[in-house]
Amino acid sequence: MDEISINYKELMDNLFDGVYFVDGTKRIRYWNKAAENITGYKAGEVLGKLCSDSILTLYDDEGRNVCDALCPLEKPVTDSPVREAELYLHHKDGRRIPVAIRITPIRDSEGSIIGALELFSDISSKSATLLRIKELEKLSMTDTLTMLANRRYIQMELESRLQELARFNWPFAILYLDIDHFKAINDTCGHEAGDAVLKTVADTLVACVRPFDLIGRWGGEEFVGIMRNVDEKGLYHIGDRLRQLVEASYVAIDKKKISVTVSAGGTMAKTDDTVEELVKRADELMFKSKAAGRNCLTVSD
Fold first, then answer.
1. How far apart are CA 195 and CA 295, in angstroms?
2. Within-domain flag for 26
């Protein structure tokens, strides 16, 4: 019997998962090598102690200490279901480690629960991978210079807004804005100045639209705004206010102030529009503003 017990201990000591047992009083009675490696606590430091003695402090995604109110050992010791969760534990050196845990009740020969077994795995690599995926998703939808929505995201958003218009008759409009004489800024002041102008225009536009509107960079010196819940009069009001605010802004480079203006076209979306048709119509209206002398807005329903 002792030989069998030793073999089981050797087996568990060679697992990659942390394993420990607690008795009915929640005192730690076994702590394997992987548990030492993952937590930083040696078996001699934890055996005989309560798991709540600041040894295995666990937190959920919202940073709540589940050892106080949501302790994953509490239910298995008093009830029967196996519990699984992804939480964070405190390493001995203070850092938090994401872990996947599985807790199983231990029963005696009569079926009474006399303790619990917990397995926990370090999922840091999984968490890092998921975070990287989110970062890549964000980058794929974001213009890296201005940090606005990029062309791909704008197209997806326009498709969604057109579907809402067709199904629920929720009105929206778009603005197409183009920085006037932008090439001259790049040619005379350099591309760094051009980038600074793009960032300033982007910041000005974003800061001055309503929270539920969207401003994105379509490409080059062109920006597109998606304005929800507006009519033609409201569209003109928003568009002209943005035009004036851009005109009033400037970029200071080498003690020189660089001011720019935008020409804009705005149009209400129609139920039979496609994304391409809607953007093309706004683009054509923007060119009417260019032809009219620049730094103005042309709106059509």
1. 20
2. yes
Distance (Å, whole) CA 284 – CA 225: 15
Q: Which residue(s) pair with 119 in the sheet?
A: 19, 102
Could you tell me the two tokens for 208? 């001055």
Do β-strands 172-179 and 214-219 pair in parallel, antiparallel, or remain unpaired?
A: unpaired
What pTM was computed for the model?
Answer: 0.59
| Contact predicate 227/211, CB 8 Å | no
Q: Domain containing 153 — which CATH number?
A: 3.30.70.270
> Domain tally for the chain?
2
Q: Which residues form the catalytic set?
A: 221
Q: pLDDT, tens digit, for every residue of 58-90?
A: 777 777 766 654 454 465 445 546 677 788 887
CA angle in degrees (0–180, nearest 5) for 183-236-294: 25
- Measured distance CA(179)–CA(261) in Å, rounded: 6
Answer positive or negative: Cα dihedral of 39, 41, 42, 46. Answer: negative
Give Cα separations from 22 to 89, 100, 131 (angstroms).
Answer: 17, 18, 34
262: left (phi over 0), alpha (psi -120 to 50) or beta: beta
For the chain, where are the alpha helices, taking DSSP H only? 2-13, 33-39, 43-46, 74-78, 124-140, 151-168, 182-189, 191-207, 232-248, 275-291
Decide if 156 is inside a domain. Answer: yes
Residues spanned by the domain of 280: 141-300
Q: Tell me the C-alpha distance between 282 and 174, whole Å.
A: 7
- Structure tokens of 36? 């030492």
